[in-house]
């Protein structure tokens, strides 16, 4: 089953991520490395606004992280045309907007990592750091950047 | 026009960054990837000290970020001898020393990104995360690390 | 003297890091780059719990950072079988769980960097950022991720 078929089976329709005419890039490929910009939760249109450990529970943060994984898959699909070109996931930096004293960043970012394993299987496993930020753009609870290895 | 000429046109004289006899390295090149250490604002001699959202406004933070971009270009010039050897900017991690509740990290780090586009044009665009830190060395408002692709 | 011999001379016995049957990976190698997951202090069994600048002094944070370096060397040994396969250390992201106002992140992460230079000599020097996080998993004071270059 292709990654796209697995996404469909999970009920996660992909949408296109467009490179704007000016400004930043959602990805840059150099050789077989595809560097993705940090992305934030935007799948459901829910207006995420707050820190985990205060406005959001760990479980809600995990839900946000799963939305971020979907968003990165949309960007990768737009970059590559075919998610099957992803040979493996290399490295994830999971950043959790953390209220003072919050220390369950890995449990939050598992929402990101688990979707990658559901979609790519063994090749979705990755090196990772899951850490606590003092703030994130627009006060979203989670932002994640990722490096993919692309088949040559 | 070369990157050095564009820097001169912007009134941004380059200064050498020296690798000390002991300690850390301002850059490491491996293959065609040039990894730069995080740098902080040091162009004007202004004693930056404080968080964005408290001691500094977003606009002041953006000014600091532009100083960091200058500093990274000085380091890259020292590393390569010729900024024309930079094929493109790959990835930027923009770190903003953020007061509680501050969430305009992208607007701050745009000060960094915009100078890169002024100097390198289309090849200056990059993948990026712009995020909020609880603290930075010497309480500077901004630190940025970057990966360049070097022409072979 | 091999890196393993230097570790022994320093009284730092290596222990194996096992890849679990499910979940995250402690490392991913792609080409000659070995990406290590963030690791936390776990050498002595001391229950590290707190922020630097509050529960821990800078000197104690530095001690924790040295434990993290040991832990990364254990993981690299498990990945490679032989630390002599490490050609050089490329890039370190040193993350310090920072109490409000704490700004001595470099002095803390020096505990990490110094052990790498003790073990690998000149090839242990690296590009680095040392920055302050709002929180870390399990409220540990330090987490560090690293990229190694592997001899081909």
Automatic annotation (TrEMBL), chains A, B, C:
Name of one Pfam family that matches: YjgF_endoribonc
Annotated Endoribonuclease L-PSP/chorismate mutase-like domain residues: 6-138
InterPro entries in alphabetical order: Endoribo_LPSP/chorism_mut-like, RutC-like_sf
Protein name: RidA/YER057c/UK114 superfamily, group 1
């Amino acid at each position: 089953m292709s990654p796209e078929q697995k996404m469909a089976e999970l009920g996660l329709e992909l949408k296109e991520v467009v490179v704007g005419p000016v400004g930043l890039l959602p990805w840059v490929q150099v050789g077989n490395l595809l560097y993705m910009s940090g992305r934030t939760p935007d799948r459901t249109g829910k207006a995420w606004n707050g820190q985990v450990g205060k406005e959001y529970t760990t479980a809600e943060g995990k839900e946000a992280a799963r939305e971020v994984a979907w968003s990165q898959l949309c960007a990768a699909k737009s970059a590559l045309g075919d998610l099957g070109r992803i040979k493996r996931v290399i490295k994830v930096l999971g950043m959790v907007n953390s209220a003072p004293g919050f220390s369950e960043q890995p449990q939050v970012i598992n929402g990101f990592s688990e979707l990658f394993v559901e979609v790519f299987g063994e090749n979705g496993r990755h090196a990772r750091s899951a850490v606590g930020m003092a703030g994130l753009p627009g006060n979203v609870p989670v932002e994640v950047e990722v490096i993919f290895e692309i088949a040559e």
